[in-house]
Amino acid sequence: MSKAAVTGVDGGVFAAVDIGASSGRVILGRISTDGGPARATLDVVHRFPNAVVQSDGGLRWDFDALFAEVLTGLAAAGKAAAERGDTITSIGIDTWAVDYGLVTKGGELTAQPYSYRDERSRAAVAGVHGKLDPARLYGTTGLQFLQFNTLYQLATEPDLDGLQALLIPDLIAFMLTGQRRTEATNASTTGLFDAVAGEWASELFGPLGLPKDLFPPLIQPGETLGTLLPGIAERTGLPQDTKVVAVGSHDTASAVAAVPAEQENFAYISSGTWSLVGLELHHPVLTEASRAANFTNERGVDGTTRYLRNVGGLWLLSECQRTWADEGYRPAIGELLDAAAALPPGGPRINPDDPAFIAPDNMPDRIRAAARNTGAVLPAEPAAVVRCILDSLAAGYARTIADAERLAGVAVGVVHIVGGGSQNGLLCQLTAEATGKPVIAGPVEATALGNVLVQARAAGVATGGLPELRRIVGAGTSLRRYEPLGLISNAARN
């Protein structure tokens, strides 16, 4: 087994812009050995909120405010690096998928980008499927059906002539460098990407009435996009020759790249606002059975396939907390989890993937209503609602992993949970119980680590493939293992 290689004691400093659907961070990452195994360390230099706003007739992202926070974070990163005598080697950007901004030929953003949580794309689904049979779409793109996938959003646009669509991380990169590209892992979430060829599925654009040049050319993780525009360099204090390097710009692609797996066949759960649950494969699964099960084949770092399904996530819990806070109830999350853990197993479960949970609203009421629809009675106490959410997520994870194993013909022996959900001990234990497999939790900052490691490899600081990069993660991360203890019966597990 080869060792991960780092080309020096101080392997460089990298800025990771990591933005999720509810918050963002700018993080400094360092790769070093200090005489021991190669490891990565992270330093969060700037945090900022991110939320949809009701504006101009729909739910939109305040991109102007978001980009201003990115610049603030890059300035803080440059200052923090300089205080240690370092210079930032490059910048990498990752965000959530599917959403985009429309940019004119002159480079102006036509409007603040819509959020996938806006309902406008729901009405466009039937029209798209009337032009392109869903089976044909899946056979080409391998993409899971979600009503907010990019192609359905684009079908609502009244006029795309003379415009280009830039996915959110590509839009940020364009504003930094002036260069227009579409990073491949995020392109694979649009519904317009060929899962086998790894290129735009150009034959789909015509039937949908989309301009062939709607998206910029593709760029792969590890390729250099460009350097900073003079005005950006001035605003951030960074050298103008600072590179912006493409990483796995879909945050899940970066997160999966940093899963500290020691074996080839593993399941992963990138647990945050959403849960992305699946397997890493070397080829897509484009069968009718896979389509019927609504699995997606998205591009991963190094041309891998992220074979996964979206499962509801901790959005349900955070929205409950927001509702309770508005009502004056603000317990610490640890208190809520302890109370939920004290409840007996076998309580009500809901379908966490129900579209009724997508938009922000009174989440506790919606969860209780969903439980009633199953014939169960869910008490109003927050602990009961929290336990219902976590039991439902764990059951959803178990079903999804079992389906992925069956459809891909792969058996896995361990489940890795990365992201914010890896800190939720109750969720991790319930997942071990529901799957009957050991769960390894961590790292929390998997997305930022994957971002930094791809940059480091592009700079020649780290070498090797994904196994070598993952050993760097494992060497620098404290992981926790949860064993299934048989607390859930087989009947309840299924």
Automatic annotation (TrEMBL):
The lineage of its organism: Bacteria, Bacillati, Actinomycetota, Actinomycetes, Micrococcales. It comes from Arthrobacter globiformis (strain ATCC 8010 / DSM 20124 / JCM 1332 / NBRC 12137 / NCIMB 8907 / NRRL B-2979 / 168). GO terms for molecular function: ATP binding; glycerol kinase activity; rhamnulokinase activity. Residues 267-459 form the Carbohydrate kinase FGGY C-terminal domain. GO terms for cellular component: cytosol. The keyword rRNA processing does not apply. Pfam families: FGGY_C, FGGY_N. This is Rhamnulokinase. InterPro entries: ATPase_NBD, FGGY_C, FGGY_N, Rhamnulokinase. One of its GO terms (biological process) is rhamnose catabolic process. CDD domains: ASKHA_NBD_FGGY_RhaB-like. It comes from the Bacteria. Residues 16-256 form the Carbohydrate kinase FGGY N-terminal domain. Coiled coil: none annotated. Belongs to the FGGY kinase family. Keywords: ATP-binding, Disulfide bond, Kinase, Nucleotide-binding, Rhamnose metabolism, Transferase.
